[in-house]
Amino acid sequence: MNTLAAILATLRRATGSITGAVGFTIFVLVILAALFAPVIATHDPDALDVMNRFAPPSAAHWLGTDHLGRDLFSRLIHGATIAMSVALSAIALALAAGTVLGILAAYLSDRGERVILILFDVIAAFPSLVLALAIVAVFGPSTGVVVAIVALTMTPHFGRVARAQVLTLKNAPFLEAERILGASGARIVFVHLLPNIMGPLVVLASMDIPVVITIEAGLSFLGLGVRPPLASWGTLIQDGYQFLSDSWIPVVVSSLALALATLGFTLFGEALRDAVDPRIGRER
C-alpha cells in the first residue's frame, strides 16, 4: 500500500507541470493504442486494395491509403504496437543485464570490475548502426534482432548507473547492520539493494524509451529492422518516401506519429526524473 501511494505521489508530481501533463497524456494514448490496436484499427492493416491506392482521407479511410491500398490509420495504430513491444522488450533486457553486471562490478575484485567495465566500453565504442549491420548480416533482419541490438547497446548505460548506485549504498550503515545480524549476500542484494537502486534505473528506462523507438524506426527505415508487411513506423516512412511524388500523406502522418510519440515519452521521462529527484528540477 505504501509503495502504491509513493507511485501515485510521484505521478502527481510528474504531471503537475504542463509539459509533464502533456507528456503523460501522449504516453497513455500510445500505450492504449499499442494494447488495443486490433480494437481501435478500422481495417486489417495488411489488407490490400490496389484499386484504391493513395486514396485521400475519407470516412472509409480516415488518413487515406498507401501505395498498396492499405488503410494508413490502421497501420499507424499497429505501428504503435511494434514500437512499444520493441522498446519495452529491449529496455527490460538491457535493464536486467545491466543491473546484474553493475552489481557484480561493484562487488567483484578489482580485476573482475575492470573486465566488466572494459566490456561496457567495448560495447559503447561501436556505433549502433555499425553493430546493427554486423548483427543483421549474421542473423538477418527481424523484430527479435532489433530487440537484441538495442538491448546490447543499452546494457552499459544501465550497468554503469547500477554500479554507481551500489557503490554508494553497499557500505551504508543499514547494510552493515544486516551483515552483523547474519544476513546472507542474496538477502542483502534482493531485499535491500535492489529496491533502493531501482528508482533511478526505472526513471532512466522511461527516458530511454523514446531513444529506442527512434532507433527501431531508423533501423526499419533502412531495412535492417522489422520486416514488411509488419507496420513499423520506420517501414511506413520508407514506403511513403518511395512514393512521395504520388502522395505526401503517408510520409507526413507516419513521421508525425513518430515525432509525437518520442516527444511525449521524452517530456514524461524528464518530468518523472524531476519528480523522483526534485533537486534536478530546481537546478534546471
Automatic annotation (TrEMBL):
<dbReference type="InterPro" id="IPR000515">
    <property type="entry name" value="MetI-like"/>
</dbReference>
<dbReference type="GO" id="GO:0015031">
    <property type="term" value="P:protein transport"/>
</dbReference>
<feature type="transmembrane region" description="Helical">
    <location>
        <begin position="21"/>
        <end position="41"/>
    </location>
</feature>
<dbReference type="Pfam" id="PF12911">
    <property type="entry name" value="OppC_N"/>
</dbReference>
<keyword id="KW-0472">Membrane</keyword>
<keyword id="KW-1003">Cell membrane</keyword>
<comment type="similarity">
    <text>Belongs to the binding-protein-dependent transport system permease family.</text>
</comment>
<protein>
    <submittedName>
        <fullName>Peptide ABC transporter permease</fullName>
    </submittedName>
</protein>
<keyword id="KW-0813">Transport</keyword>
<dbReference type="InterPro" id="IPR025966">
    <property type="entry name" value="OppC_N"/>
</dbReference>
<dbReference type="Pfam" id="PF00528">
    <property type="entry name" value="BPD_transp_1"/>
</dbReference>
<keyword id="KW-1133">Transmembrane helix</keyword>
<feature type="transmembrane region" description="Helical">
    <location>
        <begin position="247"/>
        <end position="269"/>
    </location>
</feature>
<feature type="transmembrane region" description="Helical">
    <location>
        <begin position="201"/>
        <end position="227"/>
    </location>
</feature>
<feature type="transmembrane region" description="Helical">
    <location>
        <begin position="82"/>
        <end position="108"/>
    </location>
</feature>
<feature type="transmembrane region" description="Helical">
    <location>
        <begin position="145"/>
        <end position="162"/>
    </location>
</feature>
<dbReference type="GO" id="GO:0015833">
    <property type="term" value="P:peptide transport"/>
</dbReference>
<dbReference type="InterPro" id="IPR035906">
    <property type="entry name" value="MetI-like_sf"/>
</dbReference>
<keyword id="KW-0571">Peptide transport</keyword>
<dbReference type="GO" id="GO:0055085">
    <property type="term" value="P:transmembrane transport"/>
</dbReference>
<feature type="transmembrane region" description="Helical">
    <location>
        <begin position="115"/>
        <end position="139"/>
    </location>
</feature>
<dbReference type="GO" id="GO:0005886">
    <property type="term" value="C:plasma membrane"/>
</dbReference>
<feature type="domain" description="ABC transmembrane type-1">
    <location>
        <begin position="80"/>
        <end position="269"/>
    </location>
</feature>
<keyword id="KW-0653">Protein transport</keyword>
<keyword id="KW-0812">Transmembrane</keyword>
<dbReference type="InterPro" id="IPR050366">
    <property type="entry name" value="BP-dependent_transpt_permease"/>
</dbReference>
